[in-house]
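Page 42, continued from yesterday. The earlier attempt failed because a stray header line got pasted into the input along with the sequence. Redoing it now with the clean sequence only.
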Amino acid sequence: MPLLVIVGAMDPKIDLYELLGISSEAGEKEITKAYRVKALQYHPDKNRDRPDAAQLFHDIKAAYDLLTDPKQRSDYDAKRRVSIAKRQRQNALSSQRKRMKSELERAELQARNMQNERKQRESQNVQNEAARFREEMFKAEWRHDKEMRKHMQEIHKMEHDEEDDELDRTIRIKWDDKLDYSQQSLTKVFSSFGQLEEVVVAPVSDSSRKRGKFLPTSALLVFKSVAAAQSLMNASNDPQLEWFEMYWANGAESNPVKPRFASHADSRLSSATDRQRRVHIPDISAIDPRQVSGGNLGFAEFEKLTLTRMRQHGCAKNNC
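This time it went through. Structure tokens are written below.
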């Protein structure tokens, strides 16, 4: 260890055995030999370039004198053992403090890491919960929109089916203008094919009256069921239908049922009194779909519009 030199007195912290380079168990001869080597090595005359050479040489001589005196050496050894034990205890305590400090710092670091991890987990949980909530809201809105679209489609389909249903069971008939058919007589003829919901006879238009034609020539037959309407269309060879030309009101049939006979009109003429009792409603033969509101309607829509207006006019005439 490095030697500490204090002018005039030996530093009490210097270990004499270490100063001479011997063990604490060395005998007198070994002490004397070590002293001579050290004294020769650190003699001031040989170490003129070292300012501490004199003090070091003095310390070596004092160590030799003390260690060669049995009583002084015994006292020194006792004090040295106490000093060594004290340093060992201090070193042990220092090591223990260092270990405790290190453990404390490690525990604090671990606690901070755990706290940071907990905060990160909580933050991630909040983000996950927010994402889950947004996803559930999106799914709920999507299901609601889907149900609304489905509901609207069902309503539209029901309305469309209701519209189509009436037209699907409606037959449009025509006959020669020399034949006289009223609502009552048409009902009597066509009710044999199925239960009728309504018979709407088209009145004579002004243009027909100017040409001298005063008898109606067309009507709409609304049956209670599609089957009854189909039964009528399938009975084209029935003698009762020989004067009529028949069409589906919805335009479904491309080949209408034509009348088999065009004569004997006079035998079907009714009295003028019967004609006066008929309700005069708009003539569907005089309605041009291009001149009415919604002129771009298809055939089925036009027939429905015509049927509705005829009913409204019929109700107004009969105060219904």
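Notes: Residues 70-168 form the longest helix (99 residues).
Reminder to self: strip header lines before submitting.
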